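Suppose a colleague, Dr. K., hands you the sequence of a protein chain of 393 amino acids and asks what its three-dimensional shape might be. Before reaching for any lab equipment, you can write down a predicted structure in token form. Begin with the sequence itself:
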Amino acid sequence: MTVAPVPNLNPDSRELVASIFEAVEGISAAFPRSLFLQRARDGGHARELWDALVAADLLAIGVPESLGGAGGGLTGTTAVMEALARKGIPPLQYSLTTFCREAILRHGSEQQIKDHVVTSVTGRRKICLGVTEPEAGTNSFAARTYARKTADGSYRITGQKVFISGADESDHILLLARTAPPGEPLSRRSGFGLFIVDLSLPGIELRQLDIEWYAPENQFEVFFDDVEVPQDALIGTEGLGFDHILSCLNQERVTVAAWALGLGEYALQKAVEYAKVRAPFGTPIGTHQAVAHPLALARAEMEAARQVMYSAAASYDSGVDAGDQANMAKLLGSRAALAAVDSAIQTHGGSAFVYESDVVTIWPMVRILQIAPLNNESILNYISERVLGLPRS
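The predicted structure, expressed as tokens, is then:
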């Protein structure tokens, strides 16, 4: 797999990225894109892919060596996701688990870190994220899921979350719930709790959503009917749950950028190879600028987004607030990837829509990344207000 250099990384990080891409070569040989798509069609899961990630120690990337991990920080987890997506096999469960454990690393107790972070290194812990609600959407301040504290210190959780990816494969969910009673105001620093909840507890029900996106991972509605969770399920400080999860969103933004850009690269390479050999009028269609220029522009835009992405990861790993770069990486990466996929579809013409050509199969996932986990319009609001200093929308 040919990978362009990343000038804004130090030599150690560049070596780490290169070693990760090399490891993914072996994984993709054992679990190729064709098997990924077959699992999606059959409604199954990519368990072999998860096992291969564990065997290659890639789940150890991002966890400090002092906890039995391999280090590498966000730069490492970004490289894992980009490399896998470039092969057409991006595991959403990897992104979710690494993001969720970051919140626990930052705000959890020693025991919580031992229970939920250390165990993730060997693949024994899979975590999904529960934030979005049917009525509130991405407006968490309109959340209705309520965690009521009881006299003995435990919590009773009632409510509903939606678009919860990988809930059926996960053993725990990182759940954002209001701890302020219904009707009381919420803010970034008051009224929320962040909980790590065992999905096998009584009162939890999963309902699968019918979403077609050519991936062996499913989305669910998750219902909580007076679910009792122990006091030690609370991550960090009661009331600060929203603030706790916000502190980790930069990692999610960068990982999503890697996911999108990897798939964009996968689509672009398919288009380039097709444009070299498809010759209905005697010469390859790649000789025509109407075909070549969109592909060339996709390469330039994706490479620019990639530089921002790794710069954001490096800043995050150095302890700098990488919010501006992380948001820009997600915005630029998802948009550039979508343009690349659209160009690949246009290059293939009608054959792009034949399942076996595996071109239109890329589009739904990349299109979803324009609106999830945060829509690009919200990111533009962030840039307008936080970077440009314009009045709040």
